[in-house]
Design a protein that fits this description.
The protein has 122 residues and is mostly beta strands. The chain has one helix at residues 101-105, and strands at residues 2-6, 9-12, 17-24, 32-38, 44-50, 57-59, 67-72, 77-82, 91-98, 111-112, 116-121. The strands form two sheets. Strands 2, 4, 5, 6, 9, 10 and 11 form a seven-stranded mixed sheet that branches. It has a four-stranded antiparallel sheet with strand order 1-3-8-7, with no helix packed on it. It is globular, with a radius of gyration of 13 Å. 34% of the residues are buried. The mean pLDDT is 95.
C-alpha cells in the first residue's frame, strides 16, 4: 500500500482543515488506518484511528470533540476533519495503515505516508 497525505496548510487558531490520505496498491478496505503527528522537537504521537469498515474510531484526548476521522473505501481515501484548531496542533501529520490495530496504535504500522504540514497561528 502506498499512502499519500495532503490537505495541510496554514490556518488561524479556531479555523478548520481537512486532511486526506489516498491509498493505492493492495485492498484499502483490509487495513486499519490512522493519523499520527510530530511537532518540532517532539516524538511522533498517535492522533486517531479507524477500523476497516469505519465502525470503530479512537482519538487522543486532546483532539476529541474537535477532530473526526473517517474513510471512504470506494475512494481508497481516509480523512481527518480538524475543527477549532489550536496552535498546539501544529505538526507534520502522517497517515498510516496496517492489518493489525495493535501495531498501528503502537506507532509501528507497516505503511506510512510522507506527511503533510499543519501550522496553526495564534
Amino acid at each position: 500500500v502506498q499512502l499519500q497525505a495532503s490537505g495541510g496548510g496554514l490556518v488561524q487558531a479556531g479555523g478548520s482543515l481537512r486532511l486526506s490520505c489516498a491509498a493505492s496498491g493492495r485492498a484499502f478496505s483490509n487495513y486499519v488506518m490512522g493519523w499520527f503527528r510530530q511537532a518540532p522537537g517532539k516524538e511522533r504521537i498517535f492522533v486517531a484511528s479507524i477500523t476497516w469498515n469505519g465502525a470503530g474510531t479512537a482519538y487522543i484526548d486532546s483532539v476529541k470533540d474537535r477532530f473526526t476521522i473517517s474513510r471512504d473505501n470506494t475512494k481508497n481515501t481516509m480523512y481527518l476533519q480538524m475543527n477549532s484548531l489550536k496552535p498546539e496542533d501544529t505538526a507534520v501529520y502522517y497517515c498510516s495503515a496496517d492489518n493489525e490495530i495493535s501495531r498501528l496504535l503502537n506507532g509501528r504500522a507497516i505503511f506510512w505516508g510522507q506527511g503533510t504540514q499543519v501550522t496553526v497561528s495564534s
